[in-house]
């Protein structure tokens, strides 16, 4: 075995807190206290020896700490006994402080040694019989309080070191542990996910695990709002961890999720189960798993139940229909198994506009379960048809009501206009999202051709206006005008036009 590289770092400090507060952690970290006033027991140190000639004693309850000594006639070169601390998987020790008494005799030498993640071993400290504070910074996977035969001469065994004259005694160990492994979260199910649409209080099951410091906190969120928080019991005292992995490595959680809470909106919601590992300073590693949940908090509950299946569509047009924005649309369908008097609700959301889902209209079933819901005129909308009894919802989604824009148009004067006089055009676009939308004023050429001769944009009140001077109308004739609204990004209407307005010009 190769000789250790000696760093010889000895730093006297009065408290562990002063040492570790100086370093800013890169990730969530915690300081593990072992064999100290905070954690007076032996903690999680393990005793390891290559031969029974080396002995270990737990004297943490006294001022002698954890002891490594030799009590045999002789021991071979590089044989050892040591108290060992190993960083949990996914973590590293980044600072270490220990109070130690380290002596040498008969070829045996007391040592404080750390091992890097790459396997390099570093010795720090110096030989002295009295207890002194030693510290080291870096990244380490193990810490050893070691008594080892380093041999008085090449190949010769070490003799007996009687009455602990050669020893490694250590106490007051503080290990800053940086947790670089994020927890894992798995949504296991629950009644929250059993139906396409839910309402009321529903159950959520999830599992969380962490291979570093363990799970410190679990939470359930809806659309970023915390609904449930649970802090796990961890081995902590006075701001220190008293175990290398102080928190539970895994947990299975159940939560009651109130979908009527204000954190939920009617429509798709993002529900997340989250877990954090331990961080006594810095930011904890946090992981969430999310799933979309469709919640109906808007449709009125039906007084008549018994429905087993819900059908809906736009008559013979199926799942989609196109109507003018100034006309109503009719949703027809059947609620199987319910009979007459059951309430069916149509929820709507304006397409491409980010608006909330609202109740568009409701209807009551006939004796055979059939119904017809008249949706009021308006923009293009997604339509969701529901039948709710208690907290159970039958749903029919995927309906699309497409609306072509139907602006208004007024032209003045309508009669008696002469050449070189102005025509005034005004009107309004259908709301919402009408401000700044393009409108084109067209004149009819022949029977089928339309020509744009003026354009304008609607103001905040959806109004537009334009003027045009007649220049070549020398004889009496009639003109036909209309306002055309092209399809525009963010405007929830398809291309459409106004009714045609006819104007008679006297000419001359």
What's the SSE blueprint?
Blueprint: E1 5-6, H1 16-20, E2 29-34, E3 46-49, E4 54-59, E5 65-70, E6 74-75, E7 80-86, E8 91-102, E9 104-105, E10 108-115, E11 121-124, E12 128-140, E13 142-149, E14 158-159, E15 167-179, E16 184-189, E17 197-198, E18 201-209, E19 215-222, E20 225-231, E21 236-237, E22 240-241, E23 250-258, E24 267-277, E25 286-295, E26 309-313, E27 320-324, E28 329-336, E29 343-350, E30 358-364, E31 370-375, E32 381-389, E33 392-404, E34 410-412, E35 422-428, E36 438-445, E37 449-457, E38 463-469, E39 477-485, E40 496-497, E41 501-505
Structure, described:
With 508 residues, the protein is mainly beta. It folds into 4 domains: 175 residues, Jelly Rolls (Sandwich), CATH 2.60.120; 101 residues, Sandwich (Immunoglobulin-like), CATH 2.60.40; 96 residues, Immunoglobulins (Immunoglobulin-like, Sandwich), CATH 2.60.40.10; 96 residues, Immunoglobulins (Immunoglobulin-like). 1% of the residues lie in helices and 54% in strands. It is built from 1 helix and 41 strands.
N-to-C span: 115 Å
**Would you identify the regions where 5 or more consecutive residues have pLDDT less than 50?**
1-25
Oligomeric state as shown: single chain
What is the domain total for the residues?
4
Structural class: mainly beta
Mean pLDDT: 91
Please report the first level of CATH classification, the CATH class of the largest domain.
Mainly Beta
Provide a count of the helices.
Answer: 1
Corresponding CATH architecture of the largest domain: Sandwich
What's the CATH topology name of the largest domain? Jelly Rolls
Rg from Cα: 40 Å
Provide the β-strand percentage band: over 45%
Report on the biggest sheet: 7 strands, mixed
Instruction: Compute the number of strand runs.
Output: 41
* Helix content percent band: under 10%
Q: Which term fits the overall shape?
A: elongated
């Amino acid at each position: 075995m190769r000789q250790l590289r000696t760093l010889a770092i000895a730093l006297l400090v009065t408290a562990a807190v002063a040492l570790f507060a100086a370093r800013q952690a890169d990730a969530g970290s915690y300081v593990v206290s072992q064999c100290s006033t905070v954690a007076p027991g032996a903690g999680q140190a393990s005793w390891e020896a290559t031969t029974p000639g080396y002995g270990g004693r737990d004297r943490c309850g006294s001022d002698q700490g954890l002891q490594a000594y030799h009590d045999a006639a002789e021991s071979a070169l590089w044989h050892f006994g040591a108290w060992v601390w190993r960083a949990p998987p996914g973590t590293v020790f980044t600072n270490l402080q220990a109070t130690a008494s380290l002596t040498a005799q008969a070829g045996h030498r007391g040592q404080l040694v750390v091992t890097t993640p790459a396997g390099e071993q570093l010795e720090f400290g110096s030989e002295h019989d009295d207890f002194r504070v030693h510290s080291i910074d870096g990244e380490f996977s193990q810490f050893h309080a070691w008594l080892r035969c380093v041999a008085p001469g090449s190949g010769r065994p070490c003799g007996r070191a009687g009455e602990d004259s050669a020893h490694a005694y250590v106490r007051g160990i503080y290990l800053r542990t940086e947790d670089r492994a994020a927890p894992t979260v798995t949504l296991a199910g629950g009644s929250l996910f059993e139906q396409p649409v839910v309402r009321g209080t529903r159950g959520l099951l999830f599992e969380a695990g962490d291979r570093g410091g363990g799970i410190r906190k679990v939470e359930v969120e809806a659309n970023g709002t915390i609904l449930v928080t649970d802090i796990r019991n961890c081995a902590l005292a006075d701001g220190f961890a008293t175990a290398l992995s102080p928190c539970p490595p895994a947990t299975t959680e159940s939560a009651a999720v109130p979908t009527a809470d204000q954190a939920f909106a009617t429509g798709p919601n993002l529900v997340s189960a989250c877990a954090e590992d331990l961080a006594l300073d810095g930011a904890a590693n946090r992981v969430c798993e999310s799933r979309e949940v469709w919640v109906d908090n808007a449709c009125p509950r039906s007084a008549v139940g018994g429905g087993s299946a819900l059908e809906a569509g736009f008559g013979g047009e199926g799942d989609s229909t196109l109507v003018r924005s100034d006309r109503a649309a009719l949703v027809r369908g059947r609620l199987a198994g319910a009979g007459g008097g059951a309430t069916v609700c149509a929820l709507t959301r304006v397409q491409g506009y980010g608006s909330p889902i609202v109740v568009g209209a409701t209807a009551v079933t006939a004796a055979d379960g059939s119904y017809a819901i008249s949706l009021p005129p308006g923009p293009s909308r997604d339509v969701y048809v529901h039948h709710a009894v208690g907290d159970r919802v039958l749903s029919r989604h995927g309906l699309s009501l497409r609306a072509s824009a139907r602006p208004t148009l007024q032209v003045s004067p309508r009669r008696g206009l002469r050449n070189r006089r102005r025509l005034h055009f005004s009107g309004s676009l259908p709301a919402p999202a009408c401000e700044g939308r393009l409108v084109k004023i067209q004149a009819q050429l022949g029977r089928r051709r339309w020509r744009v001769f003026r354009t304008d944009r609607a103001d905040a009140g959806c109004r537009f206006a334009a003027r045009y001077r007649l220049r070549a109308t020398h004889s009496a004739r009639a003109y036909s005008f209309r306002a055309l609204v092209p399809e525009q990004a963010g405007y929830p209407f398809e291309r459409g036009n106004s009714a045609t307005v006819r104007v008679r010009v006297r000419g001359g």
